[in-house]
């Protein structure tokens, strides 16, 4: 019997509601497996600003560093929107990824068969199947490059910057992942315009030579944005930069029915990982029991695969999500005619009950 420490950041908006459902699932797994999860709740984002005057207190970093995994809801909201950049809740997000050395963000987008009606694409396209993973570089690029104002605040700039080492380590994560999947990697850049993308392309092509069994191609980001809608079934593993990955994974999420379905894992060079839904704090539906908890629950499945070695329970969670959808239960964001509308808490109960 093992004991695992999980740092929990509930966050803002719908964060506490969806995290409560994820913890419900982990408690069910505790009962079934005999392993113990010790949860330590810490603050980040808006609630940390309210309590400590900063979005990412050192104590939060320390607790996360001392854990096996971090579970995060989402942060941010209108209350904190007018603060200066470094004091906004989102600064906590960038800060924690960087403090924990999490340079790779894995964002799977899977269209569950029962959700074909919630998919925004034409039925014949959806029926080809969607099962892709965006491997997004997380601690470099334009989100971390030099930025500022010039000309008395009349001109602003941000800088896209990548080193060979940063590109190589994310590329290797993508190719290693492809080995366990359909063995197909597409690297997405803007090498026809950006110098940083030309370096990106050169390094990824070099890494690709170490993986002769993996089919590989480059794709320009504007074409990729179009191809994800035209035929998402052509994608298996996508490797891309911080900003392109941020945007393309939201786009891919809509092909799966809702942003409320997409989990993510942020990984570094150790076992410690941070697991969170890709969506934000959805202030428009916060506190109304309307949020879809599935993205957060599927993030727990990723946690059980990558940070806590319990892959068989990860599979049980994913099977439970499928069976609840198969039985016709839906939160509002994935609702369609003839299905049963349930709230966030009920969806959590149904999935927990479906885990055997
Ligand atoms: P959002 O993802 O919070 O919401 C976009 C839309 O999707 C909204 O209509 C919302 O109701 C809906 N939605 C999102 N998650 C849902 C779920 N689980 N179930 C049902 N519907 C869901 O994006 P936004 O409105 O642009 O941002 C809101 C706040 O979240 C902002 O402060 C933003 O900075 C922050 N944010 C945080 C993160 C994060 O914590 N990782 C990510 C993105 C945005």
Architecture blueprint of SSEs:
Blueprint: E1 3-11, H1 15-33, E2 36-41, H2 46-52, H3 58-65, E3 69-74, H4 89-99, E4 104-110, H5 123-126, E5 131-137, E6 147-150, E7 155-158, H6 164-179, E8 184-189, H7 195-208, E9 215-220, H8 221-230, E10 237-240, H9 242-255, E11 263-267, E12 273-277, H10 294-306, H11 311-326, E13 329-330, E14 340-341, H12 344-354
Helix pairs in contact: 1-10, 1-12, 6-7, 8-9, 10-11, 11-12
Bound molecules: nicotinamide-adenine-dinucleotide (NAD).
Nicotinamide-adenine-dinucleotide binds next to helix 4.
Radius of gyration: 20 Å
CATH architecture of the largest domain: 3-Layer(aba) Sandwich
Low-confidence stretches: none
Principal-axis shape: globular
Give the rounded overall mean pLDDT: 95
By CATH's scheme, which homologous superfamily of the largest domain applies?
A: Isopropylmalate Dehydrogenase
User: Major sheet, described briefly?
Assistant: 10 strands, mixed
Give the CATH class of the largest domain. Alpha Beta
Count the domains.
2
The bound ligands are: nicotinamide-adenine-dinucleotide
Structural class: alpha/beta
Topology-level CATH name of the largest domain: Isopropylmalate Dehydrogenase
Instruction: Please count the beta strands (DSSP E, at least 2 residues each).
Output: 14
* Portion in helices: 40-55%
Number of helices: 12
Along the chain, the helix and strand elements come as EHEHHEHEHEEEHEHEHEHEEHHEEH
Q: State the separation between the terminal residues, measured CA to CA.
A: 19 Å
């Amino acid at each position: 019997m093992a004991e695992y420490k999980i740092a929990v950041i509930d966050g803002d908006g719908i964060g506490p509601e969806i995290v409560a459902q994820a913890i419900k699932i982990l408690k069910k797994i505790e009962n079934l497996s005999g392993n113990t999860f010790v949860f330590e709740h810490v603050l980040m984002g808006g609630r940390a600003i309210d309590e400590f005057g900063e979005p990412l207190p050192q104590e939060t970093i320390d607790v996360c560093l001392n854990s096996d995994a971090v579970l995060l809801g989402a942060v941010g909201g209108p209350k904190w929107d007018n603060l200066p950049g470094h004091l906004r809740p989102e600064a906590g997000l960038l800060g924690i990824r960087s403090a924990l050395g999490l340079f790779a963000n894995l964002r799977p987008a899977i269209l569950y068969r029962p959700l074909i009606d919630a998919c925004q694409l034409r039925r014949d396209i959806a029926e080809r199947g969607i099962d892709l993973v965006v491997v997004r570089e997380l601690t470099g690029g334009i989100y971390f490059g030099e930025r500022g104002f010039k000309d008395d605040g009349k001109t602003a700039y941000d800088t896209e910057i990548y080193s060979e080492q940063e590109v190589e380590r994310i590329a290797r994560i993508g190719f290693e992942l492809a080995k366990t999947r359909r063995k197909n990697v597409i690297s997405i850049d803007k090498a026809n315009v950006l110098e940083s993308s030309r370096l990106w392309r050169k390094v990824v092509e070099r890494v690709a030579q170490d993986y002769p069994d993996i089919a590989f191609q480059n794709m320009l980001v504007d074409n990729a944005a179009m191809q994800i809608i035209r035929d998402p079934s052509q994608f298996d593993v996508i490797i891309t930069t911080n900003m392109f990955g941020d945007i393309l994974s939201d786009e891919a999420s809509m092909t799966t029915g809702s942003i409320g379905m997409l989990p993510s894992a942020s990984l570094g060079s150790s076992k410690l990982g941070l697991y969170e839904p890709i969506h934000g704090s959805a202030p428009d539906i916060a506190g109304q029991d309307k949020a879809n908890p599935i993205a957060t629950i599927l993030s727990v499945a990723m946690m059980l695969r990558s940070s806590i070695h319990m892959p068989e329970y990860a599979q049980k969670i994913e099977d439970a999500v499928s069976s609840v959808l198969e039985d016709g239960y839906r939160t509002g964001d994935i609702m369609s005619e003839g299905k049963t509308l349930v709230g966030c808490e009920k969806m959590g109960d149904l999935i927990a009950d479906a885990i055997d």
